[in-house]
């Protein structure tokens, strides 16, 4: 994009919060922020107890705040009881919020449907009754494989209402990915739709469910509930599959929410780790709900009059916390969008902001970068063509935002008037961790600034010792926090090893590198330090993609996957492949590369398709047979190899891999 010189200049600029925003904000000015941080430092448990009493409706109040007796398996508000759905819906009944729009849904084709909080409560309750009628009960796991729709949110809320643990699988994942998650979670049901609509196309969901279940090991599934998103019929298995209409028939629209213990698993969400198998990140109910509600108020400073729009899919953690739970708990109107930012053209987001008078807009740097590119090549989709004056706060999530994209977002979307909250967090953290506060924090483009009050984030070296500001290191969190991951479903040992490794003596390891600025102590995330890639804000394990490639046993002998920087997607997936046949070149190489891409799409999902595939007679290995990934990273970037290659068994391979493209 633009030159390095500009980005250096831009990075040093500071944008103080506008006076009017400071005045009206819940956390007002740095003094307000610091007061909360002090409260947390002086009385950690008292701080969280106060917030949990003020921001969560408890059926039974808690008496214990934090139980560290079995660390790192922390428990929060353990003897308290609540229901997550009641905290999102029932809580608002009898208040002015009940008749306010909860969800303004815009379909792929532009059709708008609105439900009020009261109507949503009725629909969630009715669907909850339908789930119960299927024999689904508290503690059961339910897979949700749904398009971005009101019904998707209803499915999640209905599970929460009866105490079932949902596990949402993003609609872009493959049958195989679905199969693995069904088995690992031991799910009793799948909630899905016949099709989903994206970019004017009707894409299958139900047939992928059928295929996933047919792959075997899914005897645990007793029912498949199908939302008919489109008129096109889909295959229905007698006795197992039922349409929403069928199961809702005759069900009451009231359903008492099932109180659960604060530590009851609200959901499992699978995410990629450094090793092959995705991890089922397990979240609890009480602490998660607290943080979903509180960060809406702190980070977005929501007011009753706001129209909030988070563009994330419910298949990701952002769509859990800031679509399915947070906005509802906060009682704010939100926009839910089914489609994609570039259909019917790349002005869709701006058009929707104008149409729905969105006040808080939360999206990913990848989306911004692709819309910049589109606006650069076609004036007609530039945000200046729409009235975006309703906006008051902008947010960014999922990957570092480069200063150029930040400046464009600030200028052309925010009209230089809206604070940008660059929110750093993870599937595992449940909600925001390090982020500016719109009415307090002076902004520096490209920096997620400071941890939220009570979040004891720090940067340490490999032995867990603090490093000074200005020096890079490993991002950790020194104390537990309420919305943290509780365990990896079915694998507590992996939980301990991944997030609380012995060397770090009890510190939570985020998996990211970071550096704090010398002047302000602001955090800047420098990227993952493990074998996890961030492609368009989606997390992908390199090993996961490697396993998928070598699973093509008729063709692939060996594969190594690394990331390389990409202007648009942040990182791009680059695969080095050794075939079981002579190394292909030219047209043949192109054709096999495409075959492999489609294979990976089938194994994992289209988001995991490698952008580059290079074929070699071999891979660079040490004499002990270890693949030297750092060399592959340099080759992927197109860099000259400057590293020491003396331990390499086969140095000639480097040149061959560098040539192929
Ligand atoms: C990883 C977590 C956060 C919800 C969506 C992604 C990267 C996330 C930022 C940010 C720099 C960021 C990190 C993190 N990341 N937000 N604002 N600045 N990096 O959740 O799939 O669990 O991925 O995304 O590398 O570890 P996720």
From TrEMBL:
Its EC number is 6.2.1.1. CoA binds at residues 198-201, 318, 536. InterPro entries: Ac_CoA_lig, ACAS_N, AMP-bd_C, AMP-bd_C_sf, AMP-binding_CS, AMP-dep_synth/lig_dom, ANL_N_sf. Residues 33-88 form the Acetyl-coenzyme A synthetase N-terminal domain. Residues 544-626 form the AMP-binding enzyme C-terminal domain. It comes from the Bacteria. Signal peptide: none annotated. ATP binds at residues 398-400, 422-427, 512, 528, 539. The keyword Thylakoid does not apply. It catalyses: acetate + ATP + CoA = acetyl-CoA + AMP + diphosphate. The modification N6-acetyllysine is found at residue 626. Residues 97-481 form the AMP-dependent synthetase/ligase domain. GO terms for molecular function: acetate-CoA ligase activity. Mg(2+) binds at residues 550, 556. Its cofactor is Mg(2+). Keywords: Acetylation, ATP-binding, Ligase, Magnesium, Metal-binding, Nucleotide-binding. The keyword Ligase applies. Pfam families: ACAS_N, AMP-binding, AMP-binding_C. Acetylated. Deacetylation by the SIR2-homolog deacetylase activates the enzyme. NCBIfam families: Ac_CoA_lig_AcsA (TIGR02188), PRK00174.1 (NF001208). Catalyzes the conversion of acetate into acetyl-CoA (AcCoA), an essential intermediate at the junction of anabolic and catabolic pathways. AcsA undergoes a two-step reaction. In the first half reaction, AcsA combines acetate with ATP to form acetyl-adenylate (AcAMP) intermediate. In the second half reaction, it can then transfer the acetyl group from AcAMP to the sulfhydryl group of CoA, forming the product AcCoA. Belongs to the ATP-dependent AMP-binding enzyme family. This is Acetyl-coenzyme A synthetase. It comes from Ramlibacter aquaticus.
């Amino acid at each position: 994009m633009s030159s390095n010189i500009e980005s250096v200049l831009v990075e040093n600029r500071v944008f103080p919060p506008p006076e009017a925003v400071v005045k009206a904000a819940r956390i007002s000015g740095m003094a307000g922020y610091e007061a909360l941080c002090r409260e947390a430092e002086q009385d950690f448990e008292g701080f969280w107890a106060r917030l949990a009493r003020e921001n969560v409706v408890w059926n039974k109040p808690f008496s214990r705040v934090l139980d560290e007796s079995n660390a790192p398996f922390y428990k929060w508000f353990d003897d308290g009881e609540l229901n997550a759905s009641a905290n999102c819906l029932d809580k608002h009944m009898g208040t002015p919020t009940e008749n306010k729009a909860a969800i303004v849904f815009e379909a792929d084709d532009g059709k708008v449907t609105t439900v009020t909080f009261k109507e949503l409560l009725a629909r969630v309750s009715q669907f909850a009754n339908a789930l119960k009628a299927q024999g689904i009960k508290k503690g059961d796991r339910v897979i949700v494989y749904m398009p971005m729709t009101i019904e998707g949110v209803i499915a999640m809320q209905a599970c929460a209402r009866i105490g079932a643990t949902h596990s949402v699988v993003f609609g872009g994942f493959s049958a195989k990915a679905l199969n693995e998650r069904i088995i690992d979670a031991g799910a009793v049901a799948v909630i899905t739709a016949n099709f989903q609509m994206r970019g004017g196309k009707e894409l299958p969901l139900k047939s992928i469910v059928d295929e996933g279940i047919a792959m075997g090991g899914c005897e645990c599934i007793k029912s498949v509930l199908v939302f008919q998103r489109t008129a096109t019929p889909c295959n229905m298995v007698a006795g197992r599959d039922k349409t929403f209409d069928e199961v809702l028939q005759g069900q009451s629209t009231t359903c008492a929410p099932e109180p659960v213990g604060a530590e009851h698993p609200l959901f499992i969400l699978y995410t990629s780790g450094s090793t092959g198998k995705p991890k089922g990140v397990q979240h609890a109910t009480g602490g998660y709900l607290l943080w979903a509600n509180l960060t809406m108020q702190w980070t977005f400073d929501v007011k009753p009059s706001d129209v909030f729009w988070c563009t994330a899919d419910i298949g990701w953690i952002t769509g859990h916390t800031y679509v399915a739970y947070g906005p509802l708990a906060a009682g704010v109107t939100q926009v839910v969008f089914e489609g994609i930012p570039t259909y019917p053209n790349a002005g869709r987001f701006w058009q929707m902001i104008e149409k729905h008078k969105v006040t808080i807009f939360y999206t990913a740097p990848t989306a911004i970068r692709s819309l910049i590119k589109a606006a650069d090549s076609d004036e007609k989709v530039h945000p200046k063509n729409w009235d975006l004056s309703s906006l008051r706060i902008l947010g960014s999530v999922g990957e570092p935002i480069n200063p150029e994209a930040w400046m464009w977002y600030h200028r052309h979307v925010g009209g230089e008037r809206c604070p940008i909250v660059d929110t750093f967090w993870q599937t595992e953290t449940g909600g925001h961790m390090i982020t500016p506060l719109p009415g307090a924090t002076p902004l520096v483009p490209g920096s997620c600034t400071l941890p939220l009050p009570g979040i004891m984030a720090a940067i340490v070296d490999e032995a867990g010792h603090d490093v000074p500001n200005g020096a890079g290191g490993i991002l950790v969190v020194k104390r537990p926090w309420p919305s943290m991951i509780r365990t990896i479903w079915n694998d507590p040992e992996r939980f301990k090893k991944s997030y609380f490794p012995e060397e770090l003596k009890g510190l939570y390891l985020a998996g990211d590198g970071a550096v704090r600025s010398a002047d302000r102590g602001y955090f800047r995330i420098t990227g993952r330090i493990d074998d996890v890639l961030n492609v368009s804000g989606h997390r992908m394990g390199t090993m996961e993609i490697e396993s998928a490639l070598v699973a093509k046993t008729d063709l692939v002998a060996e594969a190594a996957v690394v990331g390389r920087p990409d202007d648009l997607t942040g990182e791009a997936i680059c695969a080095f492949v050794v075939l079981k046949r002579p190394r292909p070149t030219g047209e043949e190489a192109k054709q096999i590369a495409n075959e492999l891409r489609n294979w990976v799409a089938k194994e994992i999902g289209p988001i995991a398709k490698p952008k580059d595939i290079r074929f070699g007679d071999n891979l660079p290995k040490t004499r002990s047979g270890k693949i030297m990934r750092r060399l592959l990273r340099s080759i992927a970037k197109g860099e000259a190899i400057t590293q020491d290659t003396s331990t390499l068994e086969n140095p000639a391979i480097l040149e061959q891999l560098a040539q192929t493209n």
